[in-house]
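INFO worker-7 received task bundle
INFO bundle size: 2
INFO processing item 0
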Amino acid sequence: MPNSPGIIPLAIRALAKPSEGVTSPWSIVCLGYLLTSWAIIPHIFSRNKQPVSTLAWIWAVILFPFIGPLFYFVFGTERMERKKLRASRELAASGIRAGNQISHHSRTLIATLSEGERAAVEALSNINDYAVSSAEATRLLIGGKQFFPALCERIDEARDHVHVEFFIWRDDPRGRELRDHLLQAARRGVEIRVLLDQIGCLHLSRSFFRELVAAGGKFAWFRTPHPFRNQWTFNLRNHRKLQVIDGRSAFIGGMNMGWEYAGEDPAIGPWRDIQIEITGSVAKKFQMIFADDWFFATEEKLLDGRYYPARTQAQRLLVQPMPGGPDSLDDSIQMSLVHLLNSARHRVWLTAGYFVPKEPLLSALELAASRGVDVRVLVSAKSQHPLLIYVGRSFYDELLRFGVKIFEYAKGIDHAKVGLVDDQWLLVGSTNFDIRSLRLNFEVSALIRDPERAAELESTLRQDFEQDSHRIDLEEFRQRPRTERWKESLLRPLAPLL
């Protein structure tokens, strides 16, 4: 039996001599194969992805001529270019400190730090392109039952503006309740801006905010899938949960808007999440982050000084803003986490809604535990995305061997993204410890030096570890069924898509 000539030689023959027994439909299929494969492969090389990722996408395009290119356009984009506000210079000209300008209050607080902490603060400011700032007070909000009333209270007190940014907003009793508070604020003359991720809110119609817009409020989608403006970025999402009230108070954390996030959906059950309210000068920098996102969505510039009011009260806490996203060539949040792990002296406790660490973070966890730091990772044993549980468990064996302590939260879904570093610093934000958050999503977190809140978070996490979680034992884990191991191994390569 003669050898097959192969699809590419056959395609060439079919195009050159269509009459020699090769049907016209087959010629079209072969031509489509050649065009899609040959056109996309140079583009894949031009993106300068990691070598393993580059080779994987090239093989996907070659072996699956139509499905491969389609998946590449939907899931292959890891970076995007977007028009940024870049308002630091304009604000500075108006006497407003923003971006990398360090205030007098912050310098005074930095001077009280140890040499090691000062070096860490300097490094983090450089990594994140936002200088460390200061705050008057913080309030840790555990769960939706604390967060939703606190946010509504601040909206009711607002005098000038309310800026709200979420990844998910549900059309349910909780979602409608917050919308109604915003509506009442708009009717009394407060500027309202609502920015939502279009992919995260596929279930939500713009008409949900019709009354709010009619009352003078503004609503916009953060549109990552916009082929005419920023190419094909379906895989990149705005995962930030950020709310700024009157430029003086900012809420940061992992809370979306809906009754499931308050633990009130019986189909899902208890839901653990954490948000923090920060009042003080640093709110201006979180305002800058919102303004950048709002400009991308609407091209409206938020440069008026009233959005960035000066603070006269004593600023007693240091706060490092940590924004990150695929519009930056630097994985700033991952670099910050690695730096914190390397700088920790005796403790790093982390809780991750989704845990799929990239290699630098994986190594940093192992190295910290190896030098005697108490490294603990709390992962939810139940998830809205159960496949990610298996992916996360594929890393357990290696981490446990190096002394990292792993706990699985068993009381419900733990969606919080928080951390404790030694006795002074706490981390709260929207960033999961997975590939999507560390590279593909727009995220925002805050690193805060606040011994009082750190002690409060320690108490919460200690209860999680000791009462509401199951600690993973290495020997017991190695005895898990073979089918579990196969699931972990098969799903691990899909981690960036989940």
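INFO item 0 finished
INFO processing item 1
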Amino acid sequence: MKPLFILILVLALLEPAKAHAECAPSACVDVFTDNNQIIITAKKGNGGGVVKKRTIVTPTPKPTLWFPPKPKAVAGVKRSYKPRVRVKKAVTTSVNLSDRLIKMVPTATIAYQPEFEPLVHVPVIFWCDLPTLFQSRVDIIGEVIDVALRPGFAWQWGDGEIFQTTQPGAPYPHQIITHTYKRPGTYYVTLVATWNGTFKHNGATRAITGTIKIPSFAVITVVSANSTFTK
């Protein structure tokens, strides 16, 4: 019975830390993906630290032509009058603030060498112009959020073969990504870049919910080499 009680106590102590990591005292921030876009939301209010002060001033009555009667003098007593002081009351009210931002990630452009009519049975070099790290800093309702995304690449060569990598490739002479076509023809090359990553807010780093998949396309025509017979 005692170990069970200790386990329940530990779980109860750990639960507030999880909630605190998801929603900081100053604001509730979340970053996720929707329709291949990065959605950044932030909200504070309802005791979340956003306070707006407004001052209520009591209106001063307008003067009239009526005058109060003078008090009767009493021997040995002096009367004095003090004007009324209108007190300004400061009222504190909580204000709800929320905002939603949409960020776009880069789109890839496919390139290959040789650019004009590659030959069958000769490796073709492929690459794209995407970075290996996409970073963005966002200021939303006074909260600074750092977003970091990394892409993964899936190449479909158009002949039924697929190649996956974390590198965008490079032109000659590096030859990081190559593919050799066995038959001549026109092929439709598809590159699917899958983005995922994390965001940082108030020193805490959390994973971004969901992924972003953006396809890019290119057409390549592969030809046969002409044979020349010599004696």
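INFO item 1 finished
INFO post-check item 1: The first helix runs from residue 2 to 22.
INFO post-check item 1: The chain is about 10% helix and 45% strand.
INFO worker-7 idle
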